[in-house]
Design a protein that fits this description.
With 245 residues, the protein is of the alpha/beta class. The protein has two domains: 6-126, no CATH class; 135-242, no CATH class. 44% of the residues lie in helices and 17% in strands. The two termini are 38 Å apart.
């Protein structure tokens, strides 16, 4: 049977994806697909390799791409955070084009792959900017500023700089309920966290119910809930295996 290439599995992090790109070029791997561990499909009669994330290798790829084209690098990161179906394969094809060129005069309009990545990245950026403009913190009983969001894209890693600058004197959390992680800022330090919200009002309701409570009912009901909630004791540092970047 003709070798059609391997399926490469990685841990789902951006560093894991960049490590995978490093291994492809370092070992001259023929690739059929790149998928997150636990989501492998179409693997019948196909060789599968699992890539172990190595930050040094990820940084090597990051730096090479940055020297190639900084705007394209932004597209790659934003595209990755879109979590679109088969985004890894699209990004791999995009990176192939970057690596193959010395000068990238007009990469974005060359073909459907580069156009698609550009469109996806712009959609992610629009949601990022919208959140930065509209987010309104609620203050918990222990004086932590908290906002719970459910964005279409995984934009938490993109908004930290904006809110660190805007609210540097406060302790705050922006929490993605859809992906169950957030960013916690306190005393000049920021980290990714998970919140212990089991048996909690905000998570006992379905997503559409939470939106209705917040949007359609008396806003004072929503605000009053936060004023009665202790959140600091529910904060837990995210395990390295779940790290986003």
């Amino acid at each position: 049977m003709e070798n059609q290439g391997k399926i490469l599995l990685y841990d789902g992090s951006f560093n894991g994806f960049l490590t995978t790109i490093y291994e492809i070029y370092e070992k001259n791997i023929m690739v059929m697909n790149i998928q997150k561990t636990g989501t492998c499909q179409n693997a019948l009669f196909t060789e599968i390799d699992t890539i172990v994330t190595q930050v040094a290798k990820a940084e090597c790829v990051w730096n090479k791409l940055r020297h190639k084209n900084y705007n394209a690098l932004k597209n790659i990161y934003f595209g990755f955070l879109s979590e679109q179906k088969s985004i890894e394969w699209l990004l791999y094809q995009y990176i192939q084009k970057l690596y193959a060129r010395d000068v990238l005069a007009d990469l974005y309009y060359e073909n459907t792959t580069t156009l698609k990545i550009g469109q996806i990245a712009k959609a992610v950026e629009r949601e990022k900017l919208s959140l930065e403009a509209k987010l309104q913190f609620q203050v918990t009983k222990d004086d932590v500023y908290l906002e719970i969001i459910e964005p279409e894209f995984n934009i938490i890693p993109l908004v930290s700089k904006h809110f660190r600058t805007l609210h540097r004197g406060k302790e705050w959390i922006i929490y993605d309920a859809k992906r169950n992680y957030g960013i916690h800022y306190c005393n000049g330090a920021m980290e990714f966290v998970v919140l212990d919200l089991e048996n909690n009002f905000l998570f006992e309701h379905k997503r559409k119910d939470r939106k209705k409570i917040r949007k359609d009912h008396n806003p004072e009901l929503w605000n009053d809930y936060f004023k009665r909630t202790h959140i600091r004791s529910r904060i837990h540092k995210m395990l390295p295996s779940r790290a986003v970047a």
